Amino acid sequence: MNAMDANNMVCCPYNKAHKMLRKKLQQHILKCREIYKDEVELLVCPFNKAHLIPEPDFLQHTRSCIDRKIIAHYQHNAPATINEETKHEKIETEENWDDEYVPDYDPQQYVVNANIVREPNGMFPSQRKAFIKEERKRLLGEDSDGETSGSTQRVKAPTKTKANSTVTQRSAPYKLPNRNR
């Protein structure tokens, strides 16, 4: 089935030169309504919102609209009757969701306890390094430092200031060894 089939193509009610797929008509009407709001006044069909009709033709359209039969079908046919065959018994359950206390779901708490790899987005390089190190410990175990040197520097956790911005406390800069020449 070709998407550009003639049955799927429709014309814009505001400008007959605009042709598009039927499924794009509603979106297109919103745009053209703004462009032609001062030039063309169209009324909306009560049976199909995609039918926009000039005022002189509106009464004739409402009498002969092809979508009118859908509404007429429900107006003139009797509603379905419920009898013993179509009824079902009331479903009883012992479960009562109002009586049970269930704590709220905290996604951050879940991720900390689950075996999920988190990414250090939006962190300074020192924070990112510390975060990755903590993630390795959390996921692989306490003894998996991955460090070969004996000296490790720890970066303190971010603290909040009065302006609620995150500030990282950095350790002292590296001390260069004395080189006596």
Automatic annotation (TrEMBL):
Ranges annotated as biased composition (Polar residues): 161-171
Coiled coil: none
Domain of life: Eukaryota
Entry keyword set: Metal-binding, Zinc, Zinc-finger
Domain annotation CHHC U11-48K-type: ranges: 9-36, 42-69
Family annotation (SUPFAM superfamilies): beta-beta-alpha zinc fingers
InterPro entries: TRM13/UPF0224_CHHC_Znf_dom, UPF0224_FAM112_RNA_Proc, Znf_C2H2_sf
Location of the region described as Disordered in the Swiss-Prot/TrEMBL record: 135-181
Pfam families, per database record: zf-U11-48K
Keyword presence, Metal-binding: yes
GO molecular function, one term: zinc ion binding
Name under which the protein is recorded: Gametocyte-specific factor 1 homolog
Organism: Drosophila hydei (Fruit fly)
